């Protein structure tokens, strides 16, 4: 688990195909790796990756085909900057929110504007994830814990203060940029719980909870 509070920005130094999968190497910059051992997890642009080799200035990790399909790794190139966070411990401050590092999909930045010293970003999420996005709720973008300030269908707005821009990759974002998106894990569990006994059925509707489902199960009057 992670908090979504980025510790430093690293650089992708290697992308090596391994059949359908790939292996990556990361220059971890100022990230303290003295307490990291093989098998530990590091969130790399919001993707929970297992360290399989410690290098003098970073680490190597394997990226599965599932991760490539779900995240932006299919489009990354050597030299790209990535947000880094080590897994949380029991004495870590939870300054963001509980982040699993399991990316749900890719969102696209569709508008950027200034608001005083802050910057506003509008993002388009995949339609199937819109139901997990709530105003003033939490969301993870490229590993960064952020608050949703406004929603419009599958679009949502983030307001980024200067400090966050300086400490992460956000300042480099432009319209059209694709970013990793992880919805709040509580929303996913809540949806599953509300399915009740239907959760055991082998084929559930892809849209999950619907208004018809809520009405037929007594949630609406």
UniProtKB/TrEMBL annotation:
<keyword id="KW-0808">Transferase</keyword>
<feature type="domain" description="Lumazine-binding">
    <location>
        <begin position="98"/>
        <end position="194"/>
    </location>
</feature>
<feature type="repeat" description="Lumazine-binding">
    <location>
        <begin position="98"/>
        <end position="194"/>
    </location>
</feature>
<dbReference type="GO" id="GO:0009231">
    <property type="term" value="P:riboflavin biosynthetic process"/>
</dbReference>
<feature type="domain" description="Lumazine-binding">
    <location>
        <begin position="1"/>
        <end position="97"/>
    </location>
</feature>
<comment type="subunit">
    <text>Homotrimer.</text>
</comment>
<dbReference type="InterPro" id="IPR026017">
    <property type="entry name" value="Lumazine-bd_dom"/>
</dbReference>
<dbReference type="InterPro" id="IPR017938">
    <property type="entry name" value="Riboflavin_synthase-like_b-brl"/>
</dbReference>
<dbReference type="Pfam" id="PF00677">
    <property type="entry name" value="Lum_binding"/>
</dbReference>
<comment type="function">
    <text>Catalyzes the dismutation of two molecules of 6,7-dimethyl-8-ribityllumazine, resulting in the formation of riboflavin and 5-amino-6-(D-ribitylamino)uracil.</text>
</comment>
<keyword id="KW-0677">Repeat</keyword>
<dbReference type="GO" id="GO:0004746">
    <property type="term" value="F:riboflavin synthase activity"/>
</dbReference>
<comment type="pathway">
    <text>Cofactor biosynthesis; riboflavin biosynthesis; riboflavin from 2-hydroxy-3-oxobutyl phosphate and 5-amino-6-(D-ribitylamino)uracil: step 2/2.</text>
</comment>
<dbReference type="InterPro" id="IPR001783">
    <property type="entry name" value="Lumazine-bd"/>
</dbReference>
<dbReference type="InterPro" id="IPR023366">
    <property type="entry name" value="ATP_synth_asu-like_sf"/>
</dbReference>
<protein>
    <recommendedName>
        <fullName>Riboflavin synthase</fullName>
        <ecNumber>2.5.1.9</ecNumber>
    </recommendedName>
</protein>
<feature type="repeat" description="Lumazine-binding">
    <location>
        <begin position="1"/>
        <end position="97"/>
    </location>
</feature>
<keyword id="KW-0686">Riboflavin biosynthesis</keyword>
């Amino acid at each position: 688990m992670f908090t979504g509070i980025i510790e430093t920005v690293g650089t992708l130094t290697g992308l090596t195909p391994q059949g359908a999968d790939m292996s990556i190497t990361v220059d971890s910059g100022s990230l303290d790796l003295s307490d990291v051992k093989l098998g530990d997890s590091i969130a790399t642009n919001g993707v929970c990756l297992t360290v399989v080799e410690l290098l003098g200035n970073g680490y190597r990790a394997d990226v599965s085909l599932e991760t490539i399909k779900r995240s932006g790794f299919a489009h990354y190139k050597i030299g790209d900057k990535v947000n880094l966070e080590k897994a949380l411990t029991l004495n870590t401050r939870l300054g963001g929110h509980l982040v699993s590092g399991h990316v749900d999909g890719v969102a696209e930045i569709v508008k950027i504007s200034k608001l005083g010293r802050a910057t506003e970003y509008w993002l388009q999420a995949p339609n199937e994830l819109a139901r997990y996005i709530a105003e003033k709720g939490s969301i993870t973008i490229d590993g960064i814990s952020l608050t949703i300030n406004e929603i419009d269908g599958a679009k949502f707005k983030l307001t980024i203060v200067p400090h966050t821009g300086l400490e992460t990759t956000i300042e480099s974002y432009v319209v059209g940029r694709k970013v990793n998106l992880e919805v709040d894990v509580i929303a996913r569990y809540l949806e599953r719980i509300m399915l009740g006994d239907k959760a055991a059925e082998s084929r559930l509707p892809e849209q999950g909870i619907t208004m018809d489902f809520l009405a037929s199960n007594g949630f609406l009057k």
